[in-house]
Write a structure and sequence with these properties.
2 domains, alpha+beta, 7-stranded antiparallel sheet, single chain, globular
Length: 266
């Protein structure tokens, strides 16, 4: 008999005045949330990963890229002036190297490089939330699961959500980043949310689900049918880009801006 998962827990944060904040959470009533809680049960005493948890300043991509090339034994390309086409090229280099370098020990720079690329594409990445992840410490706890079907229609302050964690890009970001307008590359790089990791975020604010622009809708139409059929999903709507699957909720709506994660108490 499988032991039931406790549906309440605490998250302890440290605010900007070095005072502990104690938040009570109730697990959302879904299979996804139950599966996430099982992962957290295994991980909650393990130190979080600072790269996955956005604890590093990754804005200096030139330095990060040089460290990555030293680790990967690659000759660096010239990345100045840094624009979106260069960032796209760097992302492709990361993709090409990921499978091999992920097998190496002390490979933190691989993930720093990836995060730095995305930070430079979107400097507001990770703002408005407290993000927690364990990176490679998750090990076998990472699994393939249909997270795409669990997206909620809104993000609410201080609730806990599951972020999209694929190695590729979401369709909106693929379009925004001016990646190649070709079927093969689109299908290769664009992924729905089907990699289920223990990583989570606490939203610092209520978040509005924006409408897709007409330009994106018209552009996406050429790929949409095949992409949905390939990944066996029903649709890709605004909530799949601007919202997230709900994991747990709290009645505590105090301002958590500037707070840092300390621990989870089960």
């Amino acid at each position: 008999m499988v032991r039931s998962i406790k549906n309440t827990f605490k998250i302890i944060l440290l605010n900007s005045d070095n005072q502990e904040i104690d938040l009570d959470y109730k697990l959302h009533d879904s299979l996804l949330a139950q599966k996430w809680a099982k992962k957290i049960k295994h991980l909650h005493r393990i130190p979080i990963d600072p790269v996955e948890s956005y604890a590093y300043d990754l804005s200096d991509i030139e330095t990060v890229y040089k460290e990555f090339c030293n680790f990967a034994k690659l000759q660096p390309i010239d990345i100045n002036p840094l624009d979106q086409s260069i960032l796209n090229e760097l992302h492709e280099i990361y993709e090409e190297q990921h499978e091999e370098l992920s097998k190496h020990e002390n490979n933190e720079i691989l993930y720093k490089f990836h995060q730095s690329i995305h930070f430079n594409e979107d400097p507001e990445r990770g703002q408005g939330e407290i993000t927690i992840g364990w990176g490679t410490k998750e090990g076998p706890l990472t699994e393939q699961f249909d997270c795409h079907s669990y997206y909620t229609n809104k993000i609410e302050q201080n609730n806990i959500y599951l972020p999209w964690t694929e190695l590729g890009k979401e369709p909106v970001n693929y379009w925004r980043d001016k990646e190649p307008n070709e079927q093969k590359r689109f299908m290769e790089l664009c992924k729905p949310h089907q990699t289920f990791r223990a990583k989570f975020f606490i939203s610092l604010h209520d978040r509005v689900v924006k409408k897709f622009t007409l330009d994106f809708i018209q552009w996406f139409a050429q790929y949409k049918k095949d992409w949905l059929e390939t990944h066996q999903i029903k649709d890709y709507t605004e909530i799949h880009h601007y919202s997230a699957p709900l994991l747990a909720h709290t009645n505590n709506k105090q301002d958590l801006t500037g707070s840092k994660f300390v621990r989870i108490e089960l």
